[in-house]
Amino acid sequence: MPETTIPSETARSSFLRVTCPDCGAKRILFSHADTRATCDVCGAHLATPTGGRLALRKEVESVEVLH
Ligand SMILES: [Zn+2]
C-alpha cells in the first residue's frame, strides 16, 4: 500500500485564494499573515490576523492553495 503524505492543517502554512465580497476582485493571502488583509481594488477588509491563522471575514469566499 503506497504511503501518502497529507500536510497537517497546523504544521504547514498555505495560501488562500479569496474573492472580495464587495467588488469581486481575487487576491492571494498568506494563511498565517500577521497583518490585516484588505482588497487591493476597493480597500474592503478581508481578513484579520489572529496570532495564528488568518480569520477571514465571513462573506469572503476562499479556496486553499498549497505551495
Ligand atoms: Zn474589493
Describe the structure.
By secondary structure, the chain is mainly β. It has one domain (15-65): N-terminal domain of TfIIb (Single Sheet), CATH 2.20.25. 0% of the residues lie in helices and 34% in strands. The chain has no helices and six strands. A three-stranded antiparallel sheet has the order 2-1-6, with no helix packed on it. A hairpin with a 6-residue loop joins strand 3 (37-38) and strand 4. The protein is globular, with a radius of gyration of 14 Å. The two termini are 26 Å apart. The mean pLDDT is 88. Zinc ion binds next to loops.
What gross morphology would you assign? globular
User: Can you tell me the CATH class?
Assistant: Mainly Beta
Percentage of residues assigned to helices: under 10%
CATH topology name = N-terminal domain of TfIIb
Please provide a brief summary of the model.
By secondary structure, the protein is mainly beta. It is built from no helices and 6 strands. The chain has a single domain (15-65), classed as Ribosomal protein S27 (N-terminal domain of TfIIb).
